Amino acid sequence: MVANAFDYPQFKGSIPALITPMLENGEIDFEAYKKLIDWHVQEGSDALVVVGTSGESPTVDFEEHGELIRVAVTHANGRIPIIAGVGGNSTKEAIYLTQHAEKAGAQAGLSVVPYYNKPTQEGMYLHFKTIAENTSLPIILYNVPGRTSVNMTNETIIRLAQIPGIMGIKEASGDISRLGELLRDKPDHFQVYSGDDPTAAALILLGGSANISVTANVAPRAMHDLCVAAAQGDLAKVRELNGRLATLNRLLFVEANPIPVKYAVARMGLSQLGYRLPLSHMSEGNRVLVEQALKQAGLIQ
């Protein structure tokens, strides 16, 4: 367990859920990966999540997954906190990845609700409790029912918040009413992060800690400024920045994440454009829509 059971890192602001750049043949482009980390440091991102959904965790193998975490921690070299994607639908595999991230020096692990096998609320509770008991790396739960097909209830989240080592949750349900209740009822030490760009500012205004963001892959400075404005209660700036990013937030999900955001990153000249099956290239019509959103946000000419 962590030295002080509830003494965790405090993540604030904008946390890009970093893509894993690939060459056209699908091989990981580690040089582009390092350059993206450098760029996010320069652009003011507050931390980075690596090898999460946007990082194509389902399509990289175990060895690559571990290497992506190691390279990120080593290359960041303390300049920006690294949160490692360490989830899985197998508790044993999730423990393995979490222990690897701990040894690599990550600041926390992001662990998704098990997918496909559709655990009960008790199964979710036991899954995350067992992970926490087998590592000293602080764990951030990740609830994304649109992908996992199951939704972790507030009651289960509150139960898990009592377990030493479980520091917070990334909530991607976008249900502000439910999240308002969670923010009201959670323990003080437990941090709630948005995982839904369109509602991120609203969640932070209600007391959320940060936004783990897809959009920040292409608009890191604007997303950082939006999160800071929301934390400070600067409603005029929140409205202005949220309006600037609103169309981009929507169109980066016109096809399954990370297909559109990888196209956008490549269109900005920050990486080559490569995917791994079963992910495929975006349709021409949707490429036009994403380009229009990038132009509207002032990110390309």
UniProtKB/TrEMBL annotation:
Pathway(s) this gene product operates in, as recorded in its UniProt entry: Amino-acid biosynthesis; L-lysine biosynthesis via DAP pathway; (S)-tetrahydrodipicolinate from L-aspartate: step 3/4
GO cellular component, one term: cytosol
Major subcellular site: cytoplasm
Recorded coiled-coil stretches: none
EC annotation from Swiss-Prot or TrEMBL: 4.3.3.7
Annotated catalysed reactions: L-aspartate 4-semialdehyde + pyruvate = (2S,4S)-4-hydroxy-2,3,4,5-tetrahydrodipicolinate + H2O + H(+)
InterPro entries associated with the record: Aldolase_TIM, DapA, DapA-like, Schiff_base-form_aldolases_AS
Keyword Transcription: no
Any one GO MF annotation of this record: 4-hydroxy-tetrahydrodipicolinate synthase activity
Known role: Catalyzes the condensation of (S)-aspartate-beta-semialdehyde [(S)-ASA] and pyruvate to 4-hydroxy-tetrahydrodipicolinate (HTPA).
Subunit structure of this chain's protein: Homotetramer; dimer of dimers.
Protein name, UniProt field: 4-hydroxy-tetrahydrodipicolinate synthase
Organism: Pelistega indica
